[in-house]
Amino acid sequence: MNINKHLSIFIVPHHGGKQKTIFLSKKKIKTILGISITAVLALAFILMDYFSLDVTRKKYKTLVGENAQMLTRVSDYKSHIEKQDLTIIRMQEYVRKLNVMAGLKSPDDLRAVGGVGSGPDSGQSIVPAVPSKSFDINRLENLEQTANLVEQNLSSILAHYQSESQKLASTPSIWPTRGYWSERYGMRDDPFTGKRAMHWGIDVATNVGNPIWASAAGRVISCSYGKTGGNTIMINHGGGITTVYCHLSEYKVKPGQKINRGDIIGLVGRTGKATGPHLHYEVHVNGVRKNPILYILEE
After folding, report:
1. From CA 160, how far away is CA 162, in angstroms rounded?
2. What is the pLDDT of residues 198-224, one digit of tens each?
3. At a CB cut-off of 8 Å and minimum separation 6, what does 196 contact?
């Protein structure tokens, strides 16, 4: 065999057949080696690319899963912040009422800063608007600042009431009966005349005979009948505060009687000018009628 000229390959069958000889020139050998090397390199490149893509696919799946978890967490966090917004709003309204009841601010002061709206029937809307659902870092900062202000205000009110516990017991703070809040304080169309007229209290529609509770401690001033209010009870709570309960079917107290918050003073009826059974409830401060809802802390 002359390697410089050609290469001979002998093929000998195992079953004893005819021997074959393949002659390869130097040029053909180089071509075959070049093709083989190229094929090996191409295969190696394909395998590397495959494994690289496989790693990339696994990383992509991991990132997709982590992204889905992150989106869920962000959604939950956003929902939590929005709930905290609403909680702060309720706390702000609660603090507004406590300020009025403690005498630290008047309803007019609250109206001036946007607490109860404006107009002749401004007392009908005292709940701030629901916050926007937009979400950013500024909302978190504002929420924290608002919460701190509410906490400071509550601390001031607590200190005030701790020094005046008797005033707290004598300040109206609960619903006088259970039922449907049918009429608000403010301007309305009078149900009897159809004309616009001021409604000086709130009406709670409920069943005849349901109990009526004193909204604070005090002493009964009178149990009397009037053409408009029907059977009416007036209670003096001291500090210039009185409450009025109208349209009763029955009295459970007498003039001069001392009562505590939550005592049953009468039963719901429809005496006087009433379109149905309900309680008309008023709060007077130094002879001036105020929006009773400012003196109700219960939800």
Report:
1. 6
2. 999 999 999 999 999 999 999 999 999
3. 187, 188, 189, 190
Mean pLDDT of 187-194: 87
Distance CA 131, CA 143 (A): 11
How far is 3 from 133, CA to CA, in rounded Å? 85
Per-residue confidence at 160, pLDDT binned at 50, 70, 90?
A: low
**55-64: Cβ within 8 A, 24+ apart:** none
pTM listed for this prediction:
0.53
> 3-state class of 216 per DSSP?
coil
Tell me which residue of 246, 129, 141 sits closest to 183, measured CA to CA. 246
* 84 touches 146 (CB < 8 A): no
Collapse the DSSP code of 177 into the 3-class scheme (helix H, G, I; strand E, B; otherwise coil) and give the result. Answer: coil
**Distance between start and end Cα atoms, the chain:** 109
Query: What residue segments make up the domains of the chain, in order of their start?
Result: 6-60, 78-168, 174-295
Single-letter amino acid, residue 223: C
Count of Cβ atoms closer than 10 Å to residue 168 Cβ = 17
Helices (H), 103-136: 107-112
Does the pLDDT at position 122 exceed 50? Answer: no
Give CA–CA dist 291/211, Å, rounded. 22
Fill in the DSSP letter of residue 226. Answer: E
In order of 37, 53, 294, the CA distances from 49 in angstroms are 18, 6, 73
- Here the tokens at position 205 are 């529609």
Distance CA 74, CA 77 (A): 5
Amino acid occupying residue 240: G
Q: What is the pLDDT of residues 47-79, one digit of tens each?
A: 787 777 777 777 777 877 777 777 777 777 677
Does domain 174-295 fall into CATH 2.70.70.10?
Answer: yes
